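Allow me, if you will, to draw on your knowledge of protein folds for a short while. The matter concerns a single protein, recorded as an amino acid sequence and a row of backbone structure tokens. Could you please explain, in whatever detail you think fit, how the structure tokens follow from the sequence? I remain grateful for any guidance, and I place the record below:

…
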Amino acid sequence: MMLKRPSSLRRRLQLLIGLGAGCVVLSMGLIWMIHNATTSKEASQRHLLSHVDMLAAVARPAISFSDPVMAREMLATFQHDSEIVQTALFTADGRLFSSYHAGNKIADLPVLRAEGSYEENGHLLAYQTIRLKGSVIGTAMVESDLRMLYDNMRTGSIVVGMAMILSLLLAYLISLRLQRQIASPIMNLAGLMRKVGLEQDYNLRITQGGEYEEIADLHDGFNAMTGEIQHSFALIEDQRHTLAEQEKRFHLLVESIPLPVAVSRKKDGKILFVNQEALRFFQWQDAAPDSLFSLLELDLESSAPLLGEVARQGSLSNREVVVHKRDGSKVTMALSMQPVEFSGEDALLNVLFDISERKLIHDALARNNEELEKRVRSRTEELRKAKEEADQANRDKSRFLASASHDLRQPLQALTLFLGSLKFTLTSDKQRELLAQAQKSNQASAICLVP
């Protein structure tokens, strides 16, 4: 009985090595490309969202006070970021409040959209609703160019693809002349490739030289591929460094805000960063206090309602607080808080606005209004009493006049009857003339007594 002839070890090794190398190289390349695309895009999106969150926080005073000059100054600070091509602020009714275009190029007017992030035409747009005391007062928009990100991803993919093709080609060429003497080095290489694929450690290199030139070329190709991948990860690290530089630009943006600004850790209130305006205003010189709560004379327990309101509403706007300067003086300020991510930590962006003069004016107006109300009430009471006294005097006068008129009319009526009866007894003209004068005087007196 004839046994089935086994396949050639050379061909089997060629097939196994080719398939193994192809799968490992392909998986490594795909993993890297997927990882690179995912992490790079997520980093760009997080960076853009942090920008739009920060813009929404710092632009709240400009929109609430309808100050386009302050808004333009805030938007112009994005000129330091080469990836930002356009920023804009919209009012609550959808009107464009202020905008900034990079490079002084004529661009389409920004369009208001719902809160979130959008990708279109190679650009990434982020929108953030601006709220004041729970009410929407506007929307912030930041647009970045993704061409640099796509170019880096495309270049890395091409390099990795070329390295994959080169490695597979070298593996195929070397496998054509595979001999038993080189099987062990190839298996060692395959094991190292599997280790790299499993551990994602691209610092590993093959150091044993092959007996033949083809083996050495295969080793060199593998080392070149891992070197290219390592270089690609170095590019990713450079991108992280770029994010750190962008964080520095965030510092510059905060420093350009003409208000005291402090970034504090969310869980314990530890101050992570303050701008120079805060150092100057609070007379901190070169060192800020350790905690934002100590600045407000609050402990963790008493600060819980404040943090709870931020958690419920997403932000805190224009909360009146009393802040203590280094010299012990107290200042009434409006505090706005916005959650942000700072140096990989959950933090709060705190913007303070001095309202002490406005508070003094408000208190003075309240005192003046209260004093005026007291005077009005007192004067009204005096007028009411005077009116009552005048009404009582009029009533007394009316009663007196009515009584006097009645008492005086009785004798006049008797006199009228007497003069009327006397007329029939008179005989001379002189007497009748005197009687007529007496009647006339009596009538005049009666008319005067009519009330």
Notes: The chain is about 60% helix and 20% strand. The CA atoms of residues 80 and 249 lie 7 Å apart. The beta strands are 84-91, 96-101, 116-120, 123-132, 135-145, 261-265, 271-274, 316-324, 330-342, 345-354. The first strand starts at residue 84 and ends at 91.
